[in-house]
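step: validate -> pass
step: tokenize input -> pass
step: predict -> running
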Amino acid sequence: TIVDDHMVFIATENRFSTIFYKLLRFLYYKRFRDVFDKWIAVSDETKDFMLKKFSSELGDKISVIPLGVDIIQFRFREELRDEFREELNISSKTKLILYTGKRDLFKNPFILVKILRKLILSNLDYKVLMVGENVNSYDDRITRYLERYPALKTRVHLLGPVMNSSLPKVYSSADVAIWPNGSSMSMLEAMACCCPVIASDI
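step: predict -> pass
step: emit ->
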């Protein structure tokens, strides 16, 4: 039996997660530690997280296997770029800034709309596309900002989650992808589609 973990420290910096992992360790770890033959961590940081949150005894049982991307599926395709931009009515000359993932206070993609305003004030042709779940009505914050600056309304596209099979055309359509806070598997997918990535230093 194999168990894997994708978690890192920064994603658990809240009271709920602290309580959750204490309960998990107390109620389940001792019961199942001898049942699992191998523990898989997706990064060295995740391995450190598992050792701290569960037990230092796991050292020899944990193997690090980094996440990967299917480069057959995730690759740049000009026809997908043109197709998706046409769906969103985005000119081929417009520079498109992309964010994918949950829209919430922790990820804070709202900052991209503020950046967009500065670009527009400099007479640069940019748009922002956000694809993912709107958590706890986070989009209300963006909508209120767009009400204050109506010129931005046609330049911000807020989409819900899309099928994994549709992501290559999303990445292919963008000129740059930005993640303001936290790492994401999406970064690897974007780079596989030849989309430059800007991410926070965490």
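step: describe -> The chain has a mean pLDDT of 87.
step: cleanup -> pass
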